[in-house]
Backbone:
């Protein structure tokens, strides 16, 4: 991106190298997500639903809607698409018969993990190249970056609620 004339390109190339690389990781992560979506034949909203289910386990449609910041009607449409594609199923809630849970299918989870696991393992293995002190510094940097991103999301959500 160095020397790019695209609007906003200067923002990506300025600042400390570690920060620039973090921004590139965020951009590249989105590209990896797009590739996974194509592999699983789902759109970005459907992939977001699947990611929450694979990270958290079965969730209710209302919980998914809240996490994604979309209406329950929109999440219902996404769930319908995912059910039709065989990626998720609706199952009764174990303790509340009035509620349903959305559950990723084993085959869909397996396909996603087969796609991502080699990359995850490779990234995880990188840490063994660093001393314990370097690992702590990397972890500290990443933890503080996560905190900054979470605060940004919370501020944006708060601003949207106050409109």
Residues:
């Amino acid at each position: 991106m160095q020397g790019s004339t695209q609007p906003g390109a200067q923002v990506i190339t300025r600042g400390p190298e570690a920060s620039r690389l973090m921004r590139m990781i965020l951009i590249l992560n989105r590209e990896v997500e797009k590739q996974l979506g194509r592999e699983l034949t789902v759109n970005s909203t459907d992939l977001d639903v699947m990611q929450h289910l694979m990270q958290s386990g079965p969730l209710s449609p209302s919980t998914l809607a809240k996490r994604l910041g979309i209406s329950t009607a929109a999440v219902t449409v996404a769930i319908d698409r995912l059910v039709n594609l065989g990626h998720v199923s609706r199952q009764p809630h174990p303790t509340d018969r009035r509620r349903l849970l959305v559950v990723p299918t084993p085959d869909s989870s397996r396909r996603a993990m087969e796609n991502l696991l080699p990359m995850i393992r490779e990234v995880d293995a990188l840490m063994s190249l660093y001393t314990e002190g370097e690992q702590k510094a990397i972890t500290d940097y990443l933890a503080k970056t996560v905190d900054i991103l979470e605060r940004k999301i919370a501020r944006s959500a708060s601003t949207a609620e106050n409109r």
Summary: The first helix runs from residue 9 to 13. The beta strands are 88-92, 100-104. Helices lie at 9-13, 17-40, 44-56, 61-68, 72-84, 106-126, 132-161. The mean pLDDT is 89.
